[in-house]
Amino acid sequence: MDDVDDVDDRHMQIGEVAARTELSLRTIRHYEETGLVIPSARSQGGFRLYTETDVARLMVIRRMKPLGFTLEQMRDLLDATDRLDGDARLDPAERAALLERVRTYQQAAAEQVEKLRTQLSRAEDFATTLTARLNRTAPPAGTQPDDDTP
Question: Which H or E run includes 50?
């Protein structure tokens, strides 16, 4: 394989991006195939090269995934935030519409977080119940269970 030549420090190869985002190489490539994150550049040797902006985009996707957002919803939110961040010449009505799209995702995320908190609380209660059950019925530490041998 060719080494990356003439690339400044602002670009990272996919392995570094994977380590920083805690996403697998396969997942990052999948997000590229679906158009969610496109590498900012390619090295002379053909390696994907990413910037801090690309990493931030992957982190948004990573945070949306466990909340149940679809790839299409991720794409829609990223489009809205890209347009808000990239074009200072948006007319007020368009800016308001984009902000409302982002607000809708924020509200959906907050609702999902609350559902996950409830699920986590129930799971913790269950684990505590099992621990208490084991503590009630387990033989004291250092003793052996009764044995039927004479």
Answer: strand 48-50
Instruction: Indicate the pairing of strand 12-13 with strand 41-42.
Output: unpaired
Domain-embedded: residue 30: yes
Please report which helix (H) or strand (E) contains residue 12, including its range: strand 12-13
Rounded to two decimals, the pTM is: 0.75
What digits encode the pLDDT tens for the residues 21-75?
Answer: 999 999 999 999 999 999 888 888 888 899 999 999 999 999 999 999 999 999 9
Q: Is residue 1 part of a domain?
A: no
CA-CA distance, 93 to 109, in Å (whole number)? 24
Tell me which H or E stretch contains 42: strand 41-42
Domain boundary among 45, 65, 85: 65
Domain that holds residue 120: 68-135
Q: Is residue 142 part of a domain?
A: no
Order across the sheet with 41-42: list the strands. Answer: 12-13, 48-50, 41-42
